[in-house]
Amino acid sequence: MKFDIEMNQVTMKYGDVEALKNINVHLQPGKIYGLIGRNGAGKSTLLSLLASFAEPSQGDLTIGGENAFENAAIMSQVTLVYETDYSEETEKVKGMLEAAERYRPNFDREYADELVKLFNLPLDRQVKKLSSGMQSALNVTIGLANRSSITIFDEAYLGMDAPTREIFYKEVLEDHTKHPRTIILSTHLVSEMDYLFEEVVILNQGEVLIHEPIDELMERGASVTGAAQQVNTFARDMDVLSTQQLGGTKSVMVYGELTDEKRKEAERIGVEVGPVSLQDLFIHLTSEENQNEITK
Ligand SMILES: Nc1ncnc2c1ncn2[C@@H]1O[C@H](COP(=O)(O)OP(=O)(O)OP(=O)(O)O)[C@@H](O)[C@H]1O
């Protein structure tokens, strides 16, 4: 079975709050997706719909062509890892792994044991007595070892320190290569995780602002630096996301196709065109002043 995710005109309301508005998204199986958006953009809401924690208020959500909500066959193939409150969890680490092994069809216990070692998790300690970073490491251990066709991490790494997050990122890449599946990473740590993404979905105020392969998105953003007048000339027909000026030197972040012609123009008039980071693009594409102007 191919686990395509299709969202067609999906809207999700909580009372008066429209958390998602007319979402149309197709996620192909086997890719690593980055889901980014500012606070309250609707990321967790979208992911909770994928995990069947709730049903859309309107629209269709199908996984593998089937309606996903309360569909046991589909749900056994979806894992959502999120920050969990373990303050009452008396089960030990070992017991949590055994439970996952019992209930998850593709759970790989050997791999889970490897991850437990990598993350230095004490098998005999009660989960409520783990540090918050260790609890996150336990969550991602189970999330990865489940080997679900759709594996979603919703900011599941927040308690982890930087070296532990690095281990997690490396495992995502390596295990995805060995066992390709759809992995969705929702994060605010954009600059740290951008190299993991094949495609990026940017949510903004409940709507999909951008969904495309990361390479194509990155090609559309550029910094242009040079004498202020020349930079103004170059950027006259482009979307300018941000501007910095120091004396006579100006630097702008532009968004739009940089054709060969445009690149030649840059050379001719002596302005320097350089790359921008996904984080910078994200910040400026979703800034208050730009969000009404950039449409794609
Ligand atoms: N259970 C709920 N009841 C009412 N409103 C909710 C509920 N859950 C989310 N919302 C609202 O829906 C909107 C989207 O929230 P959501 O948690 O999906 O955003 P998010 O992108 O995950 O945000 P963050 O990055 O801050 O975690 C917000 O306005 C939020 O207040």
UniProtKB/TrEMBL annotation:
Domain (ABC transporter): residue spans on this chain: 5-230
Record carries keyword Cytoplasm: no
Pfam families in the record: ABC_tran
PROSITE patterns membership: ABC_TRANSPORTER_2
Protein's name according to its UniProt entry: ABC transporter ATP-binding protein
UniProt-listed SUPFAM superfamilies: P-loop containing nucleoside triphosphate hydrolases
Native species: Halobacillus naozhouensis
One Gene Ontology MF term: ATP binding
Keywords for this protein: ATP-binding, Nucleotide-binding
Taxonomic path: Bacteria, Bacillati, Bacillota, Bacilli, Bacillales
Entries under InterPro entries matching the protein: AAA+_ATPase (IPR003593), ABC_transporter-like_ATP-bd (IPR003439), P-loop_NTPase (IPR027417)
